[in-house]
Amino acid sequence: MYLEQIQNINDIKDIDPKAYEELAQEIRDFLIHKISVTGGHLGSNLGAVELTMALHLALKLPEDKIIWDVGHQSYTHKILTGRKEGFDGLRQFHGMSGFPKRKESCCDAFDTGHSSTSISAGLGLVKARDIQGLDQTIVSVIGDGAMTGGMAYEALNNAGKLETNFIIILNDNNMSISENVGGVSKYLNNIRTADSYLDLKKGIYEALRGTPRGKNMVSGIRRVKSSFKQLVIPGMLFEDMGITYLGPVDGHNIPALVRVIQEARRVNGAVMIHALTQKGKGYAPAERHPARFHGADPFDVETGLPTRPHTTPSYTDVFSTVMCKLGGRDEKVVAITAAMPDGTGLKRFRNMYPERFFDVGIAEEHAVTFAAGLAAGGMKPVVAVYSSFLQRAYDQILHDVCIQNLPVVFAIDRAGLVGSDGETHQGIFDLSYLTNIPNMHVCAPKNKWELADMLKYAVVFGGPMAIRYPRGEAYDGLREFREPVVCGRAEWIYREGEIALFAVGSMVKTAELVREKLKADGLRVSLINARFVKPIDREAVLEACEEHKLLVTLEENVSAGGYGEKVLRLLCEERKAVDCLQVALPDAYIEHGNVEKLKSEIGMDADSICRRIRERMAGA
Q1: Which of 208, 343, 374, 554 keeps 20 to 30 A from 251, CA to CA?
Q2: Which of 188, 139, 133 lies closest to 159 in space, CA to CA?
Q3: How many angstroms separate the CA atoms of 392 and 246, rounded?
Q4: What's residue 210's pLDDT?
Q5: If you average pLDDT over every residue of the chain, what do you get?
Q6: pLDDT of residue 491 exceeding 90
Q7: Is the pLDDT of residue 233 over 70?
Q8: Strand 244-250 to 498-503 pairing
Q9: Is the model's pLDDT at 549 over the cut of 60?
């Protein structure tokens, strides 16, 4: 097996070129079998095997740098840099990350996880290289989906001014270009990147600049050249920005890819290589269902079906069902997603009400301001988004939604710990960054029934409201407690004495278990479903102060700026002497791993919380 010969950085250069195709197949087989056990991003990695091999053949790592946009397609890169053995612990606690990590390898040039960032990061590395007088090739690899993000175009606009080498590879697994156009482009690329052409062009331009009317003549030549190129070159958008376009090139043809990368290295400026690839290539289930295998759970290799299918509805499923019902009842309800119709549960809404569904691409900032415009026009927009991705639209939430107090609903999925995707995807900051915005209202459901009630309440509320709920199975307990949702009103579930547990959203389930364990010790414990984090129920907190020795706040959010801090502030303002224990996530970035394992490690599981409460009570 050729894959066994890949143990260290640059070992691929010792492989016989005749064996590249076989090595690519071995890598695909390896990825399919490993990811079928651990889960992970399969489709994007299968589509980038040859592209990654070509980069490692054309470049010298770690001196040269590759920045992977999003980073979920970097598995082959990890294999080729000597991390093959790490795939047994892929995305597991203390195991290898599913994304590039600088602390993991010197060949990971930049930590990524969110989309549309690679060109900006690459530009920074290019300028750092030039300032220090280093001799490096910097390559940013970005997918066609990531090109819908505005940040990518901001960076391209900046890159067009470069007079030093910078390579951008557009990994395009969606667009198609006819053979004849591709053939003309290939011919022109060979001419335009040949040494004789580059030297001649530079010589002519320099000579003309030295004449009285030289600058005007150079501009005229460039206009004529651009007019001709527009007829035959598909990349004129990039050319017009000052970026040399090379392509399209077959993204599964290693010799062609190596050749075009080597050609691109000779250009003193930004270069866009347009590579056409197939997502999920080499594995029929992933080719047929690329969305399903974007982020796959463990699956059966033969069938492609999950080995642990979900038998109970998730919070996303509940959201999906309620949105469809709301859409049927009210024609003003509209849904917006940023390239995540499946992940956020809006696929069914799209199928039922296509004229009221909007997928704006990977553009969270635009999604929020677009929703604000819809609200200003009399509609009832619901923006469905993952917690960690909503961070990208903070300014738009503040400036375009909340200043105008517009009725936009934010359905925040994957709030709290999400597990295997790690630091860049944990949804542990939303309570902090949303609750400091005036006019914003933030709530969290204790179970699937309350999510439905909160969503129905939010679309008629008349102002900005965010509902945050976790990834995974929707809690079905405490269904007998279903008081009507009222803004800023908590829900007393059990009223006893001594200890009052104020739990937010997903932590109500944990608090119920904590209560059972403490009652077994003979303690009297009240349980309050906080419901709203902004505004908090001041009356409920102050009432609890009169009847309890210890208040305990529980939330799946960092402690800084969270619910617990708001309760502590209230107690200080009202000069209440009651003791208060804040149970929250540490003010830190939390690595990847199983959610229950992570909770145990950071003291957020029921046993750890009980231990802290017992210690606090003993100290009192």
Answers
A1: 343
A2: 139
A3: 31
A4: 65
A5: 91
A6: yes
A7: no
A8: unpaired
A9: yes
User: Residues 357, 384: contact at Cβ < 8 Å?
Assistant: no
Catalytic pick from 392, 446, 448, 531?
Answer: 392
Distance CA 66, CA 68 (A): 6
Taking the CA atoms of residue 450, residue 454, residue 457 and residue 458 in that order, the dihedral angle to the nearest 10 degrees is -170
One-letter amino acid identity for 507? Answer: M
Element containing residue 247 per DSSP (H, E): strand 244-250
pLDDT of 607 reads 96
Query: Residue 249: enclosing H or E segment and its boundaries?
Result: strand 244-250
- The one catalytic residue in 279, 380, 448, 534 is 279
Which pTM was predicted?
A: 0.88
Q: Which of 364, 365, 450, 512 is catalytic?
A: 364
Residue type for 377, please? G
Checking if the pLDDT of 488 tops 70, the result is yes
pLDDT for 553 equals 98
17-28: per-residue pLDDT in tens?
Answer: 999 999 999 999
Q: Which pLDDT score, from 0 to 100, does residue 11 have? A: 94
Both ends of the chain: CA-CA distance in Å?
Answer: 66
Alpha carbon 329 to chain centroid, angstroms: 32
Amino acid at 97: S
Q: What is the mean pLDDT of residues 56-71?
A: 97
- Alpha-carbon distance of 260 to 250, in angstroms, equals 11
Q: How far does CA 44 lie from the centroid of its chain?
A: 14
Can 279 be counted among the known catalytic residues? Answer: yes
- Per residue, the 3-state secondary structure of 346-415, as one string, reads CHHHHHHCHHHEEECCCCHHHHHHHHHHHHHCCCEEEEEEEHHHHHHHHHHHHHHHHCCCCCCEEEEECC
Q: How far apart are CA 186 and CA 180, in angstroms?
A: 10
- Model confidence at 204: pLDDT above 80: no
Q: Name the band, by pLDDT with cuts 50, 70 and 90, for residue 116.
A: very high
Indicate whether 442 pLDDT > 60: yes
**Strands 380-386 vs 333-337: parallel, antiparallel or unpaired:** parallel
Helix extents (H) in 210-277: 214-232, 236-240, 254-264
Q: Give the integer Cα–Cα distance in Å for 361 and 114.
A: 13
Residue 239 bears catalytic tag? no
Closest CA to 170 of 21, 27, 51, 40: 51
Decide if 370 contacts 335 (C-beta within 8 A).
no
